[in-house]
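Hi C.,

You asked whether I'd gotten around to modeling the 110-residue construct. I have! Everything is below, sequence then structure, no commentary in between.
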Amino acid sequence: LHHLPDQDKLRFFKRLARGMAPGGLFLLEDGMLDFELSELPGRWEGLLAVEAPRHYGPRWEQVKPDFIKSFAEEFPTSVHVLRRLLGQAGFELLESRAFTSFYGQVLARR
């Protein structure tokens, strides 16, 4: 979903909700920020120097260009915004889990 702007994420969630039975579960694991997008410039150097290399390990140099490109050309969203969008689409956020400050998981119920 990080390829979609927030308004398209909302459309996706609404369409998904229409196709799910009440009580159905939706698990999303994707790029998502555990901070507000406005904070990204101040955190960028730390992400590149410490957190992303720690997360990706020996693969970091290989994935680094795609990592940078995804933030430059795609649409990172915070968990807080995802919670709001899911709620607007009729989901209840049951759980969120941050693997890093830029990658995580949310579990929602229709």
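If it helps when you're writing up: The helical segments are 6-18, 40-56, 60-73, 79-88.

Thanks,
B.
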